[in-house]
Design goal:
heterodimer; A: alpha/beta; seven-stranded mixed beta sheet; four-stranded antiparallel beta sheet; 13 helices; B: 391 residues; alpha/beta; VC0802-like; 2 domains; six-stranded mixed beta sheet; 39% helix; elongated
């Protein structure tokens, strides 16, 4: 089916041309084992190190601070478990939010069952976290604070920058981890500016291929690896690197355009879309006005998420339902934000990329309007 | 030496003169089920059917597993067939059952001799073989009442068979021996179990699923395919008719009182399913209803639904608790986890907030007259799309 409006960029993005070419080049010319000593290995190694340099540049960090993984989930697990186990003699409290991605949230639940004390800070109505709550939650027993920079369902921006101060004030030994998967490539993600010791990024959310991600680990910070094997990735993530995916990741990172300009463009596209929705009527905006403009969560009054999603899909439009489940199970994030049941049941997430156009938005708003008149209301 | 599967048919043996027909049906079902693994020869010997692979390299583990899901079989066992030379038989028994005999502490030998020309009698076979195995496996003791393993030696006309453990079969009657019926399947826990239960009683299945895009998604239909694939491992091939149901559902929503939406919807479903059943030569409908489970499954609601049915509606779960249904979905059909995939289905789309639990037929029939459903029902049955599921 022809794609006439791709608005699910928070789920995944279409690989850019640069990434696709880099993948092909790695398959054809970089097929050696980057750890091999001969020239074929060296050729692969140079592709690998180029990719590392590109990701490092996009994060404004040192090349040696980038550890390649299979993606966001693995990076998050590596950071959370790796830090908790490394630090377990220094305390047992871990502070986070209640709206983290499952790859952090479930990892924390697993740690809770091992005796760690997990504090999950609740958000406000828009999925925002109050920095005061971070100060309250972090104590001298805290060994890790992990918080996402941008929420994947509501687009809210979390006060990651305040964590470092809170940790210092509590005289906590804590390491700081930030899941920046939804922010990377869309807003500045500079670990030193965030005050983070570890930062998670993923390839396929920035127009790279699936199967690659990275964990930034600040020089001097030690965590415990999750897997043991060879010397790759400084033993933090052993195993022969997934060259094609990593090469594509590097190319995608290099292709990220000027952030300020694209962010301004996204802001104006969001304003344009909201004006269209206003014309439609019957649409509630669940995301905060100050949310990252790339992610907007809405509820179409009286129409359940799934029928609208299916309807739009039949018209060539991709969005996602804010609620992960239809049979009574609500989206955890929207429920945590305290949205009313009716809004949760009707929630849709519309997520832009830098390639989103005004005409796609025109078509989206038009088709939602058509859906509003054709799809029978719940009651 | 060749490995075969020996099959004991179940209730079949009781069916007098029909027995032959049932046996033929059972063999046909097994042949279909094993077809993709390779060629088998089936031979009826008294109350046992022998399935013999006709080429090397046929996956007998998989074959035995499939046989275990064919209805009409009480028990089966894997056996080796060998020459009717007593020393060969003994050697084969020790070899073939080595693992089982090593892990057992007690055993006994049972012998059956239908070839009366064989030089040893059954008791003699037992004695001699018992002594031989005790010599080979000195840790074993004989226990004729409650042994860990029974070594069976059968001397038949064609060859000798040695087998150990007998495995319980799926039971029931050969699928198809009782005719064909049409299963209404939504995607929940109940309907696959209902289909399984009726197939067990010898019915072959055709199925009807109601799809209401955009209210239901392609994934909801895919889920039904997956559920039926599981059921078809027991019932054999299933023809699934996917009915486009959107307009009927919307018309009910637009024209009828919300409190009886579901009852009217079910009446429409029954009407469509009956047309398809007739077309498919199916003699009954099958649903997964159970009294009192939801508002549309109270006795008065079922009465309203049944009023439009001219053929019998089989409801094998009617008196079962949810736990009992779940137990079958978990342990038999393996459909429980699939049922939980979270998609909207035709039954959840417009669920009324306060459904009427005691609708009267009068009220429902009058409410239904609010729109001209007849052509819509016919059109829905006519345009249903066929998807063939299973072996």
């Amino acid at each position: 089916m022809e794609n006439r409006g791709y608005f699910d960029n928070s789920a995944t993005t279409k690989p850019c041309r640069e990434a696709a070419e880099a993948v092909m080049n790695a398959v054809e010319n970089g097929w050696g084992n980057p750890s091999s000593l001969h020239f074929t290995g060296s050729e692969a190694e140079s592709i690998l190190e180029d990719a590392r340099a590109n990701v490092a540049a996009a994060l404004s960090c040192k090349k040696e601070e980038i550890y390649f993984t299979s993606g966001g989930t693995e990076s998050n697990n590596l950071a959370v478990f790796g830090a908790a186990y490394k630090m377990k003699r220094s305390g047992k409290r871990i502070v986070s939010s209640s709206i983290e991605h499952p790859s952090v949230d479930s990892a924390l639940d697993a740690l809770a069952s091992e005796g760690f004390e997990i504090v999950k800070i609740k958000p406000d109505r828009y999925g925002r976290i109050d920095e005061k709550d971070i100060y309250d939650a972090v104590d001298s027993d805290t060994i890790l604070v992990t918080m996402m920079l941008v929420n994947n369902e509501l687009g809210s921006i979390l006060p990651v920058r305040s964590i470092k101060k809170a940790v210092a004030r509590a005289k906590a030994p804590a390491l700081i981890h930030c899941d920046a998967v939804q922010a990377f490539g869309k807003m500045p993600v500079k670990p030193s500016a965030l005050g983070a010791d570890m930062v998670t990024v993923s390839s396929h959310k920035i127009h790279g291929p699936k199967g690659a991600g990275a964990l930034y680990i600040r020089s001097g910070v030690k965590i415990q690896p999750r897997a043991f094997g060879g010397e790759q990735e400084m033993k933090i993530r052993p195993g022969t690197q997934a060259m094609p995916a990593i090469a594509g990741f590097g190319a995608a990172a290099k292709a990220i355009p000027d952030l300020k300009q694209s962010l301004e463009r996204a802001e104006s596209l969001k304003a344009y879309m909201l004006a269209k929705f206003e014309e439609n009527g019957g649409i509630i905006i669940n995301s905060a006005p100050d949310a990252l403009p790339y992610v907007t969560n809405i509820s179409v009054t009286g129409i359940k998420s799934e029928p609208m999603l299916n309807f739009l899909s039949s018209k060539g439009i991709c969005v996602s339902s804010g609620s992960a489940c239809s049979k009574g199970k609500k989206s955890r994030v929207l429920a945590e934000a305290g949205l009313e049941n009716a809004a949760v049941e009707s929630a849709l997430r519309i997520s832009f990329s830098r390639f989103t156009t005004e005409s796609e938005i025109d078509y989206l708003a038009g088709m939602i309007k058509l859906g509003q008149s054709e799809i029978r209301k719940i009651r | 030496m060749k490995e075969v599967i020996l099959i004991k048919n179940g209730e079949l043996a009781l069916k007098g003169l029909n027995r032959r027909t049932f046996e033929d049906m059972l063999i046909k079902n097994m042949r279909l089920r094993l077809k993709s693994l390779g060629q088998f020869n089936f031979e009826v010997q008294q109350s046992t059917i022998m399935a013999e692979p006709l080429s090397d390299g046929i996956d007998l583990d998989e074959a035995a597993e499939r046989i275990g899901r064919v209805f009409g079989i009480a028990a089966y066992s894997r056996a080796i067939a060998c020459e009717k030379d007593f020393q060969t038989i003994l050697r084969n028994a020790a070899d073939y059952l080595e693992e089982d005999l090593e892990s057992a502490s007690t055993f006994k030998v049972e012998a059956k001799r239908s070839d009366k020309k064989f030089p040893l009698t059954s008791p003699e076979i037992c004695r001699e073989a018992g002594g031989y195995l005790l010599g080979k496996f000195p840790h074993l003791e004989v226990d004729v009442h409650n042994p860990d393993i029974t070594v069976n030696i059968e001397i038949r006309d064609t060859s000798a068979f040695v087998h150990g453990r007998q495995i319980k079969g799926a039971g029931g009657m050969p699928t198809g021996s009782a005719g064909k019926a049409c299963l209404l399947i939504s995607g929940g826990i109940d309907s696959p179990v209902a289909g399984y239960m009726m197939a067990k009683r010898g019915l072959s299945l055709t199925a009807v699923h109601f799809a209401s895009p955009p209210y239901t998604s392609e994934k909801a239909e895919q889920k039904v395919h997956k559920l039926l694939e599981k059921v078809s491992m027991f019932s054999g091939r299933i023809g699934l008719w996917v009915v486009h149901f959107t307009e009927i559902q919307e018309s009910i929503k637009d024209n009828c009182p919300e409190e009886i939406f579901t009852v009217i919807m079910r009446r429409m479903m029954m009407r469509v399913a009956q047309i398809i059943a007739r077309r498919e030569n199916a003699g009954a409908l099958i649903t997964g209803e159970s009294v009192g489970q939801v508002a549309s499954q109270t006795m008065p609601a079922i009465a309203c639904t049944d009023a439009v049915c001219e053929i019998p509606v089989f409801r094998p779960l009617i008196g079962m608790d949810k736990d009992e249904v779940i137990a079958i979905a978990r342990n038999k059909t393996d459909t429980f986890d699939l049922s939980f995939l979270p998609y909207e289905d035709c039954c959840t789309v417009f669920t009324p907030k306060h459904p009427r639990t005691r609708p009267t037929l009068d009220y429902v029939e009058k409410a239904e007259e609010a729109f001209d459903w007849k052509p819509m029902v016919e059109e829905a049955a006519k345009t249903a799309r066929l998807v063939v599921i299973g072996y």
